[in-house]
Amino acid sequence: MIHDKILTNVGYRSGRAKQILVTGGAGFLGSHLCERLVNAGHEVLCVDNFYTGSKRNLTALLDSSRFELIRHDITFPLYLEVDEIYNLACPASPIHYQYDPVQTTKTSVHGSINMLGLAKRLKARILLASTSEVYGDPEVHPQPETYWGRVNPIGPRACYDEGKRCAETLFFDYRRQHNLSIKVARIFNTYGPRMLPNDGRVVSNFIVQALTNEPITIYGDGSQTRSFCFVDDLISGLVRLMETPDSLTGPVNLGNPAELEILELAQLIIDMIGSKSVIDFKPLPTDDPKQRQPDIAKAKEELDWAPSVSLHDGLTKTIAYFENLLMADELV
Ligand code: NAD
Ligand code: UDP
Ligand code: UDP
Q: Which ligand approaches the C-alpha of residue 291 most closely?
């Protein structure tokens, strides 16, 4: 065991196979990350409490000898041996993170403390999946990493936004206090296969509604903007960030700067599917940000990373995924 560990550490330093922990690995982004890391030859330990994730997302990996799945809630301590930690555990869609807001904050805060404690004991590098939500409803556009944000600390989105802001604080304090090797990624809206059909996020909602010819629900007048990144591009950015030298901590924005209005997104999806859906305007949720677009100059410079998948190509793959679910009668 100790011998294995020494070998793994040697591998880590020389850029060979590593033992990598992915928390939230059964979720949308986590499952794609696990797949990418296993395919690159690493041993992956996936930890998840299946709050929004599922074993089904990991079907392709369950038989791999380099993959292990552990059911565990990261708000409780976790003792195991790894070289690197990607901390992704946390529900990301407003419906799910607002369903049990106290647990959402606990996952970001207690969960990060536990994963940072684990990283400290192991002297392992640790990455946080933070979010553009730390910018709140921004007055600066596009948002650079230097912008401190405008978050309502007592609104319904605060459990997620403030939870992630506190997680970032913890990461930087463990860096300052314990000299930990940390990486903080601020992820902007990402979409792709394995989003949950019922999680309320805009891309999955619109595609499912368009495929079933149900009305497309636009919150507000649809003039609010978002910038959508395809999952494969995002995963490349996360892996690149993890591989940078210790001196590069982030935070780094990862997202696609191609910005569009939500109404335009609805029209594009209706046209691509050839759907008969009509538009149904609904009230805008509280604290819904009016615009969001990443400034990715830092990611370009420090990671030599930029997204390469166009919205049209990414949506084509995502629509195909949901069409398959529909055919298998699994669109719930
Ligand atoms: P997701 O809900 O699909 O995945 C989250 C995973 O974490 C799920 O598998 C869930 O079961 C697990 N989880 C939740 N609480 C846990 C806990 N206490 N212990 C163990 N596991 C737990 O969401 P996602 O879209 O894959 O997001 C992954 C990460 O990326 C999140 O941290 C999210 O905040 C961040 N992020 C995502 C986006 C996006 O657009 N998808 C944008 C910004 C940030
Ligand atoms: N922790 C963990 N796994 C470990 C080491 C620590 O889950 O391998 C948890 C532990 O429960 C602790 C937290 O991480 O509450 C923070 O650990 P740290 O060493 O930073 O602080 P302390 O133990 O002094 O509270
Ligand atoms: N939205 C919408 N209809 C939907 C779901 C979402 O108009 O069926 C809007 C939502 O109000 C927001 C944008 O689409 O302005 C993105 O919502 P999502 O929940 O996907 O992400 P976030 O608000 O966290 O960026």
A: 3
Model confidence at 5: pLDDT above 90: no
In a domain, 77, yes or no: yes
Q: Indicate whether residue 114 lines ligand 2 (CB < 6 A).
A: yes
pLDDT level of residue 286 (50, 70, 90 thresholds): confident
pLDDT at 12 over 60: no
Let me know if residue 60 belongs to a domain. Answer: yes
- Ligand 1 mean position to 162 CA, how many Å? 15
Q: Whose CA is nearest to atom 4 of ligand 2?
A: 118
pLDDT of 332 reads: 60
Cα 40 to ligand 2 centroid, rounded to whole Å: 30
Nearest atom in ligand 1 to 54's CA:
9
**Omega before residue 142 within 30° of 0, cis:** yes
Contact 107 CB / ligand 1 (< 6 Å): yes
Mean pLDDT score of the chain: 94
Would the CB of 256 count as within 6 Å of ligand 1? no
In the reported structure, the alpha carbon of residue 89 is separated from the centroid of ligand 1 by a whole-number distance in angstroms of 5
Q: Is 276 part of any domain?
A: no
Residue 168 has pLDDT above 70, yes or no: yes
What would the pLDDT profile of 69-124 be if each residue is shown by its tens digit?
999 999 999 999 999 999 999 999 999 999 999 999 999 999 999 999 999 999 99
pLDDT given at position 13: 42
> Domain range holding 163?
2-189+230-257+294-307
Name the residues annotated as catalytic: 160
CB 275 within 8 A of CB 210: yes
Which residue has the CA at smallest separation from atom 21 of ligand 2? Answer: 117
Q: Would you say the pTM of this structure is higher than 0.85?
A: yes
> CATH no. for residue 236?
3.40.50.720
Q: How far is the CA of 102 from the centre of ligand 3 (A)?
A: 22
